[in-house]
Structures are given as structure tokens and as C-alpha cells.
């Protein structure tokens, strides 16, 4: 754990990518295969499951710190991070135990089988044997929320430096469902067997939001355009007569979508398709909310299948006849995909995402304006000669999303943030008018500059009406323009509506609260 703590400290002290890569590469050199695997797992979001709830951890930490619970809770609200609060308030360690990262992760996993009293004794003993930084890491791991400020992409670069294996190859080997508790480093990274590739997906290629004019990226003839469908990005794999469906979050979701199972027999072996899992009925896409009814459910009932059937809207062909064709130009991959879908009719289970016919950027802009009525988020632009790369890249693929919907709303509640923003008020509740009263309808916590967050924090402290734990009720004074991607009716919210991806677009200092939007205005947007 000491070496992992040293790595964490080195990474936390710099923002330079080259320094982070060097720190990780040095760490991989020094530790054994088990610690390498667990570090790779943590950095690729394969953390151990939570085995102790945070309420118990707060009680035990207050007890060991000899603090009243209210004082511990107030300290937590100020610090904004439970793991850090515990690490700061606990007394110095009574002894020192030199154990590996793997030891402590196995220790955390083993807590799941203990009763509450035995968990308490084990956790308190661990706290008494760890240095402050090690405690912080232990606390983060035990709560299941550990992050190191290092992307998987950066970790792959460091692993490439250590092993000498090319980054794209490593990124592919790290995809799929592997367990650091059972897999071997040599078998996963150095010499993977062909059988391990049966269900393994490819790393997804992601696009940046178009941040320049279309004229700046070239001529229309260079680009393929299609709608950006509003579903779940996924890969469908058929190998050796078996079907696998992966989400972009590297979750195997085959059982969630039984509609796709016939494709195991309809499609040839050695086929991997990149596309959108899209709720689809009566020849048109449904709302994303319809798809959410299936996400997270253990059992997909007949009723759910009837209410929200799905199709796979195919974007790209990554593997054909068992061969990785990602380096082939998009135009070539698209032609093979069209032939595949045409030659293997599936009754609508598998469709190809239609391209947009256009001869000028003005024509494409007009098509983009129709996106919402087609349940699309906008337009995808892909250079016809582009390969299928790994991760988010600039230049060859762009998403040209429709402008967000917006309303002007009044801030009525404020709450402090977490982590580096723990001392700032960054989480706000907004309201619109319903007659002569303000009705809360959404929360938002992003969109302002650091300067604006500092300014609004000073104002909140001077204009608090009531306190409800960490939440403050403030004088209804300030209007903010709230942007969002979608809106729907909701019985779970008092306002009767719910927004998708709300954020603060700007602080409307020019508007009095009387000119904020109304609940009726919001309900009118339900038809947009």
C-alpha cells in the first residue's frame, strides 16, 4: 500500500501528462503482477464493490476520533469528502503494517461476509495501522468511490511504456469482462490466448462536439452525415455461434436485450457491429425515457418488452469474417455494413443508420434543425477516409448537436460541492413561477466559472434564510438561464416535469425574478 500511496501522491501533485505517465510507468516497474492488475482495474473503473455503508463508517470514525456525531457531520460538510474527513480526524496510527495494495483490497472484499460488530472491529484496526494518505486511499476503496485523476487512456500510455506494447493493442486487451482477482497479468496483457477474445469488444471511437464552423472542416463531399440517435451506444458481437452485447461503459448487457438473440444465428461468425441500442416501435424511435425502463432491471418482463422494444441502429462494422477492419477507411467499412444488413434480413432487429443526402452545409444545417422531431440529438459527421480509432479524437469525427432548450429560473436553494469545491456553494435548486409562487423543478451544479462560483458563494453566506443540514434556503433574487437536452412529464417530481442534463448556461444579472419562466412555459416544451 505504501507504494500505491506514493503513486497517488505523485499523481496528485501534478497536472502534467508526461509526469503522470512517468510516475505510473515507474510504479508498474516496482510492484508485482497482482498489484499491477488491481491498479489497472481501479483506473479502468473495476473497483471492488462497497462492503460497508457510509453511515456506519461515519459512526465508527466519530467514535474513534472521540467527537460528537454532530461535530463530525459538520466537519464532513465543510471538507466535502467522507474519506478525507475520516483521514483528517482520526488519531495518529498506533502501529504500522506493511501490506500490499492487493492485501488491502482482499481485506475490504472480505468485510462483506462479516456481521456489523466484526466489520467495526476490522475497520478500526485497519485505521489504527495506516498512515494518513494510506487511510484516505483505504477509505476511498471501501466506499467504492476511488478516483486518481488519471484516465484509462493515460494509464494505457504508461502501461505501453512499461511493456513496450502499442497503446491501441493494450486498449483492446483491457476491454471486456476481466476480474483482477482471477486473471493473470501475463495472460491478460503480455500473451493473451485466442480463446480470451471470444466475447471481447473493441474500444469505442468517440467524437468531440463540433467547435468550429462546418466550412472550416472541408467540403461536404469529404464527410458522411447521419443522425445522432438518442439511445445507448453498444457493440454487438457474433463469434463461434455466440452473441455478446456490450455497452459503452464496458458492461455485458446481452441478457437485457433478448430481441438481439436471434442474430447469433442470422449473422456470420466474426462480426462486430458498433451501433445504438434504440427503443423502436411502429417504425420510429421512442423517447429515451422508454429505454430507461429497461436499464437496471434484473428481469426484463414481457410487458417491458412490449412497451419498449429495441432495435440496433448500426453505425459501423469493426470486425468482418473474423478480421479486425478498423484501419480500413469508413467508406469501405460502410459498404461492407450495408451488404451485411441487406444480405441478412432480421425483421427490424438490426437496421443501418441512414446517411443524410446533402450537397451543401446549408442543407445539412436545415436537416439538423429537424433532429428533435426525429428523436435525434443532432448530426454526426464522419470523414469518409477515416479509420476507426480508440477513444476520443479530434479531426475525423464530430458530433453537431442541436442547440439545447433553455428556460430562465430563480435560484432558491444552495448546497456546497465536494472535493476541491467543498468550500464553495456549487449545487443549486431552481424554480419557476406557478401563479404567484415559485415551484422547484430542477437542480444544476455546472456551467459557471470559478469566479462566478466564488461570487455566488459569498452571496449565499450573506443571504441564507434557513438551513436544512447542508442545504440553505436563500432569498429568491438571482435568475439563471438553465440549458437542458430534453424534458418529459414525471410523476416523481412535484413540478410534474423532469429535465435531461440540466446545467447553468449563464447568470442572468439583467433579469428580475418576475421575468423568470413559468411552469406553463415548461409544460409547453413537452411537445417540442
Q: What does the model show?
A:
By secondary structure, the chain is an alpha+beta fold. The protein folds into three domains: 2-143, DNA ligase, ATP-dependent, N-terminal domain (DNA ligase i, domain 1, Orthogonal Bundle); 205-401, DNA ligase/mRNA capping enzyme (D-amino Acid Aminotransferase, Chain A, domain 1, 2-Layer Sandwich), CATH 3.30.470.30; 405-525, OB fold (Dihydrolipoamide Acetyltransferase, E2P) (Beta Barrel). Strands 4, 5, 6, 7, 8, 9 and 10 form a seven-stranded mixed beta sheet that branches. Strands 14, 15, 16, 17, 18, 19 and 22 form a seven-stranded antiparallel beta sheet that branches. Strands 2-13-11-3 form a four-stranded mixed beta sheet, covered by helices on one side. The longest helix is centred in the first third of the chain and has 14 residues, at 17-30. The radius of gyration is 26 Å and the shape is globular.
Layout of SSEs?
Layout lengths: L1 H11 L4 H14 L2 H11 L10 H12 L3 H11 L2 H8 L11 H10 L5 H12 L4 H12 L8 H12 L3 H7 L11 H6 L14 E2 L1 E2 L13 E7 L2 E8 L2 E6 L15 H4 L4 E11 L2 E2 L2 H5 L9 H6 L2 E11 L2 E2 L5 H14 L6 E3 L8 H8 L7 E8 L7 E2 L4 E5 L3 E12 L8 E10 L2 E8 L5 H13 L1 E5 L2 E4 L4 E6 L1 E4 L7 E4 L2 E5 L11 H7 L3
Parallel strand pairs: 1-12, 2-13, 8-10
Antiparallel strand pairs: 3-11, 4-5, 4-6, 6-7, 6-8, 8-9, 11-13, 14-15, 14-18, 14-19, 15-16, 17-18, 19-22, 20-21
Task: Sum this structure up briefly.
The chain has 528 residues and is an alpha+beta fold.
Amino acid at each position: 500500500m505504501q507504494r500505491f500511496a506514493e503513486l497517488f501522491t505523485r499523481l496528485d501533485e501534478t497536472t502534467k501528462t508526461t509526469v503522470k505517465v512517468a510516475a505510473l510507468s515507474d510504479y508498474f516497474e516496482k510492484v508485482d503482477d497482482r498489484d499491477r492488475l488491481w491498479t489497472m482495474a481501479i483506473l479502468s473503473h473495476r473497483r471492488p464493490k462497497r462492503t460497508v455503508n457510509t453511515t456506519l463508517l461515519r459512526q465508527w470514525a466519530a467514535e474513534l476520533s472521540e467527537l460528537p456525531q454532530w461535530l463530525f457531520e459538520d466537519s464532513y460538510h465543510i471538507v466535502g469528502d467522507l474519506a478525507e474527513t475520516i483521514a483528517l480526524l482520526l488519531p495518529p496510527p498506533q502501529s504500522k503494517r506493511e501490506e500490499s495494495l492487493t492485501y488491502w483490497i482482499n481485506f475490504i472484499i472480505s468485510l462483506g461476509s462479516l456481521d456489523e460488530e466484526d466489520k467495526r472491529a476490522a475497520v478500526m484496526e485497519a485505521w489504527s495501522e495506516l498512515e494518513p494518505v494510506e487511510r484516505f486511499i483505504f477509505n476511498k476503496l471501501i466506499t467504492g468511490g476511488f478516483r486518481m485523476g488519471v484516465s484509462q487512456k493515460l494509464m494505457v500510455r504508461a502501461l505501453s511504456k512499461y511493456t513496450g506494447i502499442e497503446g491501441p493493442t493494450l486498449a483492446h486487451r483491457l476491454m471486456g469482462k476481466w476480474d483482477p482477482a482471477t486473471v493473470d497479468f501475463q495472460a491478460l496483457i503480455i500473451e493473451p490466448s485466442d480463446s480470451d477474445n471470444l466475447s471481447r469488444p473493441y474500444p469505442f471511437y468517440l467524437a468531440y462536439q463540433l467547435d468550429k464552423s462546418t466550412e472550416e472542416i472541408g467540403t461536404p463531399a469529404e464527410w458522411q452525415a447521419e443522425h445522432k440517435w438518442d439511445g445507448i451506444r453498444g457493440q454487438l458481437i457474433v463469434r463461434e455461434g455466440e452473441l455478446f452485447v456490450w455497452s459503452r461503459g464496458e458492461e455485458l448487457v446481452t441478457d437485457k436485450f433478448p430481441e438481439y438473440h436471434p442474430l447469433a444465428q442470422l449473422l456470420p461468425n466474426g462480426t462486430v457491429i458498433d451501433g445504438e441500442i434504440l427503443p423502436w416501435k411502429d417504425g420510429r424511435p421512442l423517447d429515451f425515457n422508454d429505454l430507461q425502463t429497461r436499464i437496471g432491471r434484473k428481469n426484463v418482463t414481457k410487458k417491458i418488452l412490449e412497451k419498449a422494444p429495441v432495435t440496433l441502429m448500426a453505425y459501423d462494422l469493426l470486425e468482418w469474417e473474423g478480421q479486425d477492419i478498423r484501419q480500413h477507411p469508413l467508406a469501405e467499412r460502410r459498404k461492407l455494413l450495408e451488404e451485411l444488413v441487406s444480405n441478412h434480413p432480421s425483421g427490424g432487429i438490426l437496421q443501418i443508420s441512414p446517411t443524410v443526402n446533402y450537397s451543401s452545409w446549408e442543407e445539412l444545417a436545415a436537416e439538423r434543425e429537424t433532429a428533435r422531431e426525429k428523436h435525434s440529438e443532432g448530426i454526426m459527421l464522419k470523414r469518409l477516409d477515416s479509420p476507426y480509432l480508440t477513444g476520443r479524437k479530434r479531426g475525423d469525427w464530430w458530433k453537431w448537436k442541436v442547440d439545447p432548450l433553455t428556460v430562465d429560473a430563480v435560484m432558491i436553494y444552495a448546497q456546497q460541492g465536494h472535493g476541491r469545491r467543498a468550500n464553495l456553494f456549487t449545487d443549486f435548486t431552481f424554480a419557476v413561477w406557478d401563479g404567484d409562487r415559485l415551484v422547484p423543478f430542477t437542480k444544476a451544479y455546472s456551467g459557471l466559472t470559478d469566479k462566478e462560483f466564488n461570487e455566488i458563494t459569498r452571496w449565499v453566506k450573506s443571504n441564507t434564510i434557513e438551513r436544512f443540514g447542508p442545504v440553505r434556503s436563500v432569498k429568491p433574487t438571482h435568475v439563471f438561464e438553465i440549458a437542458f437536452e430534453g424534458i418529459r412529464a414525471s410523476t416523481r417530481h412535484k413540478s410534474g416535469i423532469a429535465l435531461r442534463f440540466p446545467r447553468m448556461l449563464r447568470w442572468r444579472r439583467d433579469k428580475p425574478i418576475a421575468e423568470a419562466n413559468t411552469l406553463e412555459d415548461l409544460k409547453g416544451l413537452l411537445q417540442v
